Amino acid sequence: MKRFFAILAAFVIALSAHAAEKDQKLQKALELAKSGKAASAAKLLVPEKGKEPVGQRLLAYVNILAENHIMQIGFKSFSLRDLKKGEKIEDARASGGAEEFFEEDLEAKVVAALQAAPENPHVNMAAGKYIYDAIECACATFERLRAEPEEALRYYLKAYEGGVFDFQSLYRLGFLYQLKGGEENVAKALSFYQKAYEINPKYVPLRYNLGVIYAMTGFADKAREHALAALDGYGDEERDGGTRYLMARIEEISGNEKEAGKFYLGALEKSPYDPDYLSDYAAFLRKKGDFASYEKVVVEAVSRDFSDPDIFSAYVRLVSRMGAAPTDVAILSTLSKAKFADPLAEGTALFNLGQLAEVTGDRTTAKESYRRALELLSGREGVNPKLLESLKTMLSRQGQ
Length: 400
Description:
3% strand; 22 helices; three-stranded antiparallel beta sheet; elongated
């Protein structure tokens, strides 16, 4: 979930121009927010004492606070300020500066609106938006709302059924159904994604997720079309690595080995510490019998940072699943000669080397690796006691 939530784009305020024209103050607030003057916009929407905002004003107020805050506490209290010319919200948050404490308890306002108008589609849209953004933030300390995908889905869906939706809510409805999994939910996800696609076919996360769904359901040509549209489209290494990995999986499923290999390698180049990219690429190379590339890729990936156990563990699990090949014995020999930066990195590496040695049938190396790892890690601050217990069990398994 973490990876998917990380790729969501900025909001689009869900209000039609016709509806906004009926409320000049609301229209002015929307114009100010669009120009980066969030504090000025929010001031126009602050309710009179004892009158909580409902309907379209609440939706605009939630959008402005959730997307333009300089500081937030528990995703309930927010401060804002108008941006300077050319300034971005990310810059304003990083630099701090004069900001105005604006909202003490947005959760209370959303809950009050839901109680006052539970069927109002704009109120439900505001609740769905607020909860979803709180999930993405992973910072909410709600007392009455629940920051859970199922809750966001419920409110967004009620808004949609009431005729209130925009590109963002359609995309998020698709994503929330995709998260639920299962054939029926995937079909619903695809339906909402297609509605979003009609509005904005260039949105990279949408094209990526469509590629995932079509690959899962066996439509390789459609999957490739959308995945290619998303390829390297995010502008950051980790997520662009994901687009290359998706292309690799699609090409492998389609039997296009040359293209699959190119994209697997490209994914690792973008995100060299992702264990899935290594294990799936290594498995692909083994299956096609390219053991020279297999050895090179594994040794480079594992040796890049012995203190990071995830990559090494992914390789060990791969060998356990597929069985040890002669090349794995050679890899064990190469990795056993490595030099380590510190005792913690060495102990962690030896733990994995012991497991690799066991899988390849080298009990002598396994025993010595476990013994040395236990010696290096025992009594060291920050080492999980369960790891030490596992080492003792593994060592005794070798006859010690």
